[in-house]
Specification:
The protein has one domain: Gcn5-related N-acetyltransferase (GNAT) (Aminopeptidase, 3-Layer(aba) Sandwich). The chain is an alpha+beta fold and 126 residues long. A hairpin with a 2-residue loop joins strand 3 and strand 4. It has 3 helices and 7 strands. The longest helix has 11 residues.
């Protein structure tokens, strides 16, 4: 599943947990809450995990976000991105939310991201 934006695209990460940790290790803002171990820990309390990355042709991962999600009230899905996203935050566009909605198969989604400086960019009206 991929959302095209230009030469860059958001896509669902399909690598292993070990590969995820190696991929995010190069980000300056890497933290424990974006690690595979944190995701494994949170799955024990009912959260599911999807990892999204923004990539380009021949370019390594530019932006990465490990998203925890679970069903909410009234057929909604609640998504939490603890400690993230990481990398180039200018790549956090409505395409990110569109891919999340496709992956979790919902039209009603609440996304909680701790970085307030760009959160307003993600408001999507559909």
């Amino acid at each position: 599943m991929k959302i095209e934006t230009s030469p860059l695209a958001w896509t669902v990460w399909d690598g292993t947990s070990s590969e995820w940790n190696k991929t995010i290790a190069h980000f300056e803002d890497v933290n424990v809450y974006q690690s595979a171990e944190w995701a494994i820990h949170k799955t024990t309390s009912g959260w599911s995990v999807v990892r999204l990355v923004c990539v380009g042709d021949g370019v390594p991962v530019i932006t990465a976000a490990q998203c925890l999600y679970r069903s909410g009230p009234l057929s909604t899905v609640v998504v939490w991105v603890p400690g993230g996203p990481m990398g180039d935050l200018d790549k956090m566009t409505p395409d990110f939310v569109d891919l999340l909605k496709q992956h979790v198969k919902t039209n009603l989604i609440y996304v909680r991201i701790p970085h307030q400086t760009f959160a307003c960019k993600l408001i999507v009206k559909h």
